[in-house]
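User: Hi! I'm working on a homework problem where we have to compare a predicted structure to a textbook description. Could you give me the structure for the chain below?
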Amino acid sequence: MERVALTALVREKAGKGVARGLRREQRVPAVLYSHGKSMPISMVSRDVTKILNTEGGEHALINLTLEGAQGSGEHMALIKDYQVDPLNGSLIHLDLMEVAMNEKVKIQVSVHITGSSIGVKEGGIFQYGLRTLEVECLPTQIPDNIEVNITNLKINESLHVRDITAPEGVRILSDGDSTVATIQPPISAEKLESMLAAAPTAEVGEPEVVGKKKEGEAEAAAAPAAGAKGKEAAPAKEAAAPKKEAAPKK
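Assistant: Happy to help. Predicted structure tokens:
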């Protein structure tokens, strides 16, 4: 596993305002946990991001040198957790766990699929199960990942945690019955068509255009409008009243 050296400053103050100030200075607020205690620290964001971007960097063994009024000295630590900004991907917080070189640790390690499955070559569909496994080992024996070879996996077959051979000195703690990889049978065109036919269909009404009037309202509104124009649909003129005949002169 990778081993790196980093320097951190012990923080005397904590809080959101302090954290925002550190980020403006291109530093990441962090916490070092050790035997039930915690110590607020800060580190250079660029240095930590560089480690995380390397293969297996999340499990790097860090030789951490602390500087400050309290807790100065050297500590061996692992990255326990970290958070990134969902908008720009920048590192916003880091949790470290102090370790002893002669004490085993429990940690999550990613699964790395290798090989080309027989079932996939026959038209099957590969489906992931667990993406990480919990393991226990000494800090110096933490693997970058756990390799899982699926070459012999056929259609309708699954590979479980119990089928995995762990590296030397590593014990897998995840449930042995949990599935890591499966080869699903291909879906025929007939089966897909029957599935679509069996699916309930929702009745969708005609969308009403904003400002569109119903048929009755439209006719009612059209009458006065036509009368106002006097050209398009002028109403029939009423029959003129008969003129009164002039009385005969005497």
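For your comparison, note the following. DSSP finds five helices and 13 strands in the chain. Confidence is low (pLDDT under 50) at residues 211-216, 218-242, 244-248. Good luck with the assignment!
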